[in-house]
């Protein structure tokens, strides 16, 4: 099984590393526009094979898409990350052109691939990829909810002082500082609602920290995060390639689900070999429904900026 990752920067290379050492794919191609960069990252990853004990083939390419031919999954991480004080939405001017060109190039060589979009503003870049390529909606998946949910569970585990893997929880809505919706009502500690252990003030703090999780890391690092983003992409690719049918919140095209149309936004999905196999329509309460509608309004307003490129 072959995976191509475009953008061999922080997120792309970390994701390649995780896919390789977890043996999720048999072959990985890293592609970047920067001369020699992807080749260097691929060689460095390949030199962990004997110490980490895997045989996945990892190669790099400087903008030669013929090397990506026949990929089962392609991941788009190319573009610029934000700097402290910026929003993800401010990246649209540069990233939209990059994502559109990269998606078109990838599909010329891998016409049957499932496309995972990571570049920000991710929901709008996912919508752009869908509109620009005309691919069926099940084959375009925006990665954001998997990451936001892992941050949500991390903050919950800290507040509860319990292991993160004993926590369940999901974040839906847009992948933005103000558009994410951590579903605190449905989060649990081994099946017991977290509200049994945390006060509403404590839960509100967990939700607020989750929403600005990416901005907090950007402030600390000077550029945006990569370990958890890379691992979240690997988790999603694993569910696709191994047909795991995991329920993962992903940014997907809605046609009536959650009361929305003509938009890509985060909702719980069953992810398997066909990409998005099902959108799970969970019952939201009135407050959650209102938050979702507001989040969709903000994502739709951002999509309007694509007029000049579509
Ligand atoms: N959806 C999500 O949850 C997340 C999204 N991101 C986004 O992912 C993107 C990448 O972030 P980083 O890896 O930290 O940035 P980075 O700057 O480390 O890497 C980006 C790479 O893209 C390459 N690139 C630029 N234009 C290209 C083109 N036309 N073709 C091929 N490669 C090209 C650059 O040379 C660079 O190596 C950013 O837009 C960031 O905001 C980052 C983390 C999480
Ligand atoms: O914060 C950013 O700009 C990158 C990103 O999407 C994340 O880490 O959630």
From TrEMBL:
Its EC number is 1.1.1.37. GO terms for biological process: lactate metabolic process; tricarboxylic acid cycle. The active site is at 175 (proton acceptor). InterPro entries: L-lactate/malate_DH, Lactate/malate_DH_C, Lactate/malate_DH_N, Lactate_DH/Glyco_Ohase_4_C, Malate_DH_type3, NAD(P)-bd_dom_sf. It catalyses: (S)-malate + NAD(+) = oxaloacetate + NADH + H(+). Substrate binds at residues 82, 88, 120, 151. SUPFAM superfamilies: LDH C-terminal domain-like, NAD(P)-binding Rossmann-fold domains. The keyword Cell cycle does not apply. It comes from the Bacteria. Residues 1-142 form the Lactate/malate dehydrogenase N-terminal domain. The keyword Transport does not apply. Residues 147-300 form the Lactate/malate dehydrogenase C-terminal domain. NAD(+) binds at residues 7-12, 32, 95, 118-120. One of its GO terms (molecular function) is L-malate dehydrogenase (NAD+) activity. Keywords: NAD, Oxidoreductase, Tricarboxylic acid cycle. NCBIfam families: MalateDH_bact, PRK06223.1. Belongs to the LDH/MDH superfamily. MDH type 3 family. Catalyzes the reversible oxidation of malate to oxaloacetate. This is Malate dehydrogenase. It comes from Flavobacterium aquatile LMG 4008 = ATCC 11947. The gene is mdh.
């Amino acid at each position: 099984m072959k995976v191509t990752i475009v953008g061999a920067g922080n997120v792309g290379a970390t994701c390649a590393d995780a896919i390789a050492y977890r043996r999720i794919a048999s072959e990985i191609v890293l592609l970047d526009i920067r001369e020699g960069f992807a080749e260097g990252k691929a060689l460095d990853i390949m030199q962990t094979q004997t110490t980490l004990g895997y045989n996945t083939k990892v190669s790099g390419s400087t903008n030669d898409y013929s090397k990506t031919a026949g990929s089962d999954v392609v991941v788009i991480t190319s573009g610029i990350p934000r700097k402290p004080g910026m929003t993800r939405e401010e990246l649209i001017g540069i990233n939209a052109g990059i994502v559109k060109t990269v998606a078109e190039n990838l599909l010329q060589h891998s016409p049957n691939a499932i496309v995972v979009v990571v570049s920000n503003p991710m929901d709008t870049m996912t919508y752009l990829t869908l509109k620009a390529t005309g691919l069926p909606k099940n084959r375009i998946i925006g990665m954001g909810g998997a990451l936001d949910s892992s941050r949500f569970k991390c903050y919950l585990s800290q507040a509860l002082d319990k292991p993160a893997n004993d926590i369940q929880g999901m974040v839906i809505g847009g992948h933005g500082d103000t558009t994410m919706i951590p579903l605190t009502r449905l989060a649990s500690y081994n099946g017991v609602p977290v509200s049994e252990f945390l006060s509403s003030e404590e839960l509100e703090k967990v939700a607020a920290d989750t929403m600005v999780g990416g901005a907090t890391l950007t402030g600390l690092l000077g550029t945006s995060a990569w370990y958890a983003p890379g691992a979240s992409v690997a988790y999603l690719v694993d569910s696709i390639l191994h047909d795991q049918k995991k329920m993962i919140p992903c940014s997907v095209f809605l046609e009536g689900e959650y009361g929305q149309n003509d938009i890509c936004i985060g909702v719980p999905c069953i992810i398997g070999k066909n990409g998005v196999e099902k959108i799970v329509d969970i019952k939201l309460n009135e407050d959650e429904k209102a938050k979702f509608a507001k989040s969709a309004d903000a994502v739709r307003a951002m999509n309007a900026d694509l007029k000049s490129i579509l």
